[in-house]
Amino acid sequence: MSWIRRMLASLSPPPAKRLEDVTATEPAPSAPLPDFIRMVAAGEPVSDARHHEAGAVIYPYRNPRRALERVRSRAAGAGAGGSARAWTAADAAESITGGLAALPELDAQRFTLGTAGLKHRNGAEHNAFFDPAARRVIKLTMPGEFGAWGGLEDYLQRLAWVNELFDDEVLIEGWLRYPNEEHPRLVTSQPWYRVNPERPEPNLTQIDAYMWRTGFLKA
Length: 219
Prior knowledge:
It contains seven helices and seven strands, in the order H-H-E-E-H-H-H-E-E-E-H-E-E-H.
């Protein structure tokens, strides 16, 4: 899938909104928070939180692009992104104060209890929990890493592109740090799509055909 990453990296990002341009009338994401995410969210919602019809709190900046703008505003260019490595010395020093601190913090102990009964799968870039009630996958990055390459800002930009280019619904849930780990993890969620159990993963021909229909040319 490296050609997809190269293609995404070569795209010019759509014009990003400045924080001051985001008004209180901007619609909140439609998907409700998973029950255990609602349970483990720490602290009070910030002032411009929204509520969906069921009454669950929708934290602002769950949209990756809004989260990216908030991180950029808080970080002011200090260590929170644009890195060729997953976790630089600057990231280690500034990620909480200038980057991840711009996003909600989740209580690690309560998060662990909330996910204890969920099926999970560990991958090379994420740990994933499957929540059938919310019909969403809860994903945690590896400690101190944000995908295969780049820093926090790069990761959020890629998530924003995925939503815009492929009509996905990735949401930023926050971040947490387990007591036995030195670095924090970013927590996201996205819709859980059931697949044909006999063909759970697409082959390269199917991937190429899908990307071609989406408007990409293979490099």
